[in-house]
Amino acid sequence: MRPRASVLVGFAIIAVYAAAALLGPLLSPYGEAEVVGDVWEPFSAAHPLGTDNLGRDMLSRLLWGASRTIGVALAATLLAFGIGMTLGYLAAVVGGWVDMILSRGIDTLMAIPTLIFALVVLAVLPPSVVILILVIAVLDSTRVFRLARAVAMDVVVMDFVEVARLRGERLGWIVFREVLPNTLPPLIAEFGLRFCFAFLFLSSLSFLGLGIQPPAADWGGMVRDNANAISFGLPIPLIPAAAIAILTIGVNLVVDWQLERSSGARRGVRP
Amino acid sequence: MHPLLRLVAQRLVLGAGTLLVVSALIFAGTEILPGDVAQAILGQTATPEAVAAIREDLGLDRPAWVRYLDWLAGFLRGDLGTSLANRVPISEMIAGRLENTLFLAGVAAAIAVPVAITLGVIAARFRETWLDKTISIVTLSAISMPEFFIGYILIFVFAVKLFWVPSIASVFPGMDFLDRLYAVSLPVATLSLVVIAHMMRMTRAAIVNVMASPYIETAELKGLTRSRITLHHALPNALSPIINVVVINLAYLVVGVVVVEVVFVYPGMGQLMVDAVAKRDVPVVQATGIIFAATYVLLNLTADVLAILANPRIRHAR
Amino acid sequence: MTLLLEIRDLHIEALGEEGNWQEIVKGVSLELEPARVLGLIGESGAGKSTIGLAALGYARHGCRLARGSIRLQGEELFGATPEKLRHIRGVRVCYVAQSAAAAFNPAHRLEDQVIEAAVQHGIMTPDEARAEARRLYTKLRLPKPELFGRRYPHQVSGGQLQRAMTVMAMVPRPDLIVFDEPTTALDVTTQIEVLAAIKEAIADEGMAAVYITHDLALVAQMAHRIMVLRDGLTVEVGPTEQILEAPREAYTRALVNVRRVQKPEKPRSGAAPLLEVRAVDAAYGTVPVLFDVSVALEAGRTVAVVGESGSGKSTLARVITGLLPPRSGEVRLDGRPLPSSLGDRSKDQLRRIQLVYQMPDVALNPRQKVEEIVGRVLSFYFGIEGAERRREVARLLEEVELPAVFVDRYPGELSGGQKQRICIARALAARPEVIICDEVTSALDVQVADAVLRLLLRLQEETGIAYLFITHDLATVKAIADDIVVMLEGRVVEQGPKSEILTPPHHPYTDLLLSSVPEMEVGWLDRVLRERAERKARGETVMEAADR
Questions:
Q1: Does the beta-carbon distance from C17 to A159 stay under 8 Å?
Q2: What is the ipTM of this complex?
Q3: pTM score, two decimals?
Q4: Which other chains touch chain B, taking contact as 3+ CB pairs less than 8 Å apart?
Q5: Are residues C206 and C243 in the same domain?
Q6: What is the largest distance, in Å, between two alpha-carbon atoms of chain B?
Q7: Measured between CA atoms, how close is B215 to chain A, in angstroms?
Q8: Angle at C296 between CA C294 and CA C297, to 5 degrees
Q9: What is the CATH number of domain A5-21+57-266?
């Protein structure tokens, strides 16, 4: 299937953000927490996006924030996949009581709304970057577990897996050579969705003042810092908020296409 | 026993069990995780004597499970404990706020559910036309935006530029219904937008899924009208997935409310919980956390039970 | 006489993977007179269902009627408005689908669905339609006609649902009914009863029918004329007798002459059995599935285990391979008991018994090349690696009559028959003494299946492998077995050498099974039914599917 225009837009957005995340600190004209002007200065040649509530350069903070926000969300997503996929495959391939204990445990964890769970935990633990990554990863991994287990279950019941069992193959071979290669396509799309979740979740926590702590630049936190500007008719908090929304839209456009493509290819055409 | 009743009873027992485990988890989350609550309250510079005093004050010297049972028993009696920050009974702090949150979520649900289902059915009916594609892109964008982004855009346009509605949703006891509705119009709009987008996409998927069934082809080959096929053959089978979608999103609404309350400085449970977390007021966090979690569990339970009731294969067992 | 249905040069296209339209029906013409039955026969991909649906002016999602003409009593359906087609479907032409279980709406009572078309199109009042439905329930020998319609689809059996679907098509009294493989999903003993009921009803009601199937013997019982299709093209059309007795085309001759594989029965050597199942009871959880099953297999021989769905024949394979440890009894290999569970068996014990599955599609890992699929067995059991392994895989491919270039292919690039050959090559790679063949030919088209059977027989002659052949298909049993084991509901009802089992007197169930297999002969169905009725009249025990 030929990608639609919207998918190309999605890829372009992701590319721009990836560049910003990698090169942001190098490109930024000022330091992350450097006070360079007055409060909420308008757009100018010196400050293309104006200044923030403490007189820091908005563009610089946006660029610094890119690597921080995207980096933390990406790390959390990767960790979530590590945990979720390992446990999900284990549950599907081993089955029996291992599956039951894991599934019941994850179900219970999922019975608590993610944000509420995170708030409870963050009431006790310090909101350091490591803790944030761990909390988001653990909460996100429950969804990965569900999907990984479900797709692995579909594959595990196939005869070629039984053939491997009957041959006497060990667990490692069955998981990595028989099951894993056949479950990757749906998990790739899921990676995009889980990244969006982690990214929005982190931004929400920061917006609530419980995520990445100032003075470090973070897009959710920047919305919070500049929220008051709205009442003066200044759209300043909309800038970091839009930065968040645009990346999520970009990723979702690609994921949507990927999901449609994989389901369409599986359905095929009935003769 | 009729298999239907047995299934429902099973779910209810399972739900009660889940609630119990969830309460234990929330308790454990605040009490047993590394980091001493007493230390956390007083900060790193506190003297050991002060820490010991507050530990005793909170009963932290007793074993965790005793405190859990105590806490649970109190909870069941309606005694939610006392706030550490201002020594006020938590039930007093929560009383008006719970009502406010339920009002906000309730109004948003009353708008979002019918709109989302109607849009979902329309999108499924006109599948793969420009209308469907437009709805798809718009809803995809809406679910991609953080709630606070939508909230501030609405404030910027409708409160700051157009002066149509207030930007801060202040409500107080004794306020009459219409005034209250006017006050919460922006938070309601924000919540509804996000929930409608989610719910509509899921409704469409549920219907499209049913429309691919062989019995729909049978109906087409009987020469039935499109509306009869949709209403008589597809809808009864799409009912349980749609119920599921609605309840999942209502639960989401209760949680999404946290961020929206902060954006609009609305005096609800979410705002209270976020403040308590920032102040490390653990008893308040526990109490609000368990109320949110219990609502979520109960809504999921309702979805389960309704989905069972809507399933003809279970209703008319062999 | 005016034609009821006249299709001229019909082309139908389907949307391919890359979004391009591909022709799947390439210019087919057919004619049907009132009250006659036309059989459409062909293998998978022949386009027969697609043509059947075109008789209702219908094309499935992802397909379109490209050009040609479809005339119903002279009225053009090709390019007709949806509204006009709507008034033809369910009124003048009705459709009976292959899987009634999926084609009935689970949310409504059978009766409401059965009378829906007639009522919605205003042909009958609900009461008239209900009365007509009850008359037809009786005619199709459905139990308790008064109450039958009150039930929901999931509350009745597959055979009954298929008959209910036929009633649904007949209630509006259409001129034409399209039957799309209506008995394919049924067991053979149920199939004969549904066939008889459908045949009688069509004749009595004076309706015309298009009867679609892949089984020539079946269609020969139902149709006045037969059209043979292949890859979307007509091969041959003619009266049923002519197609069966004097086929003009080579392809038709091949269809008529399949199942001529015949293996002479090998005399028993009297040696100790290689594989022995002794007094096995087995259960899935708390549901007992096998009761006191004993089967013995001598080296170099073939035992066919035959039975219908639910007979426990596949469970027997799971017990032998160790996938399902039995509750009691044991499995012996070469006189020594095998550990009951897979995990306790040694590598060599596992190697000696290999399994070939029904569905080659899911028995091969789609992400591995043939070299890996077959080669892994060589590495695993014999430590053969690298260039030697590759040579050995190529040799095994040659064994199963596949070109050596297939070494680098993925399963997705192969046809069904080729995939099944790869599965056989994989089993051979382990140099086994026993191969369990679980319905290995049922997913394949008849000719391909025949070739696979021939291959298996040749391999047995060359290597002396013993086969345990699990199947529901008596034609296969006749072709390849030395010994036969007949199973019914988890028990062995009869076993012995082929010659003994296949000659009367039979156990009543064996008799039912044998007499239910369609034979390539006009009038077979009528003859069997007549014989059964006569024997019943004489007071002999005659088992029916419903007795099971």
A1: no
A2: 0.82
A3: 0.81
A4: A, C
A5: yes
A6: 84
A7: 16
A8: 150
A9: 1.10.3720.10
